[in-house]
Amino acid sequence: MTDATKRPPLRIGLTGGIASGKSVVAEFFAELGVPVIDTDVIARELVAPGQPALDEIRERFGDETIDADGNLDRAAMRRVVFADENARFDLEAILHPRIGAETRRQAAAAGGAYQLIVVPLLVGSPLLRFVDRVLAVDCDEETQIRRLMERDTETIEQARRILEAQVTGDERRAIADDVIDNNASIDSLRSRVRTLDRYYQFLAERQDRRESSPENS
Questions:
Q1: What is the count of structural domains for the chain?
Q2: Whether 26 and 122 share a structural domain
């Protein structure tokens, strides 16, 4: 296949609930040489001091969402948006168009036989139409709560509110072509990623890129 006729990279949208293990899965794919475009990383860059998005956030939500060093106070922002659905919608209106544009820009430059595009909120996102396949990472709710308590939240009530504000595992699975159940060991997770890597390399050369995964049938 010549450069002129080479097919564009297969785009895999990686999604999953908060604290489901998406970052670990993405890291394992990156270790295999797969280009990874993470919308959470893009979002953090977009709200760096001096960026227009941070100015809009300050204007909409007030100085209480900005810390003493001029950075976004993520804990304060999280409390606001998970307590008020309209506030969450407003934040998404500020960030999502910018995230989408930068994701597409990075994907165009990344190359590779296939790419992993990490989008936690892929259900209902315009980026769902951008990817060729969807890989969902899931785990049981108690595991999510334990991980949230360890890293992000102060109380179990806050952790449960965060989970309740997200789409359900069933909704994520409904859009998924492939699923990783992240309730087992780290070695099992790494093995599953290696299996999917071989499968995606195979699919990248095929005409039908959305055929069913053998492990999901």
A1: 2
A2: yes
As separate numbers, helices (DSSP H) first and strands (DSSP E) second, the chain gives 9, 5
pLDDT in tens, 79-113: 898 888 899 999 999 999 999 999 999 999 999 99
pLDDT at residue 2 tops 70: no
State the Cα–Cα distance between residues 132 and 153, nearest whole angstrom: 34
Q: Is the pLDDT of residue 138 over 50?
A: yes
Whether the per-residue pLDDT at 1 is higher than 60: the answer is no
Rounded-to-integer distance, Cα 80 and Cα 77, Å? 5
Q: Which residue has the tokens 């069933």?
A: 170
Give the C-alpha separation, 126 to 110, whole Å: 20
Rounded Cα gap, residues 120 and 103, in angstroms: 13
Contact 103, 110 (CB under 8 A): no
Q: What is the b/e burial string over 60-69, where b = at least 16 CB atoms within 10 angstroms of the residue's CB?
A: ebeeebbeee
Choosing from 95, 110, 125, the residue where a domain stops is 110
Distances (CA, A) of 168 to 14, 68, 137, 138, 162: 15, 36, 12, 10, 12
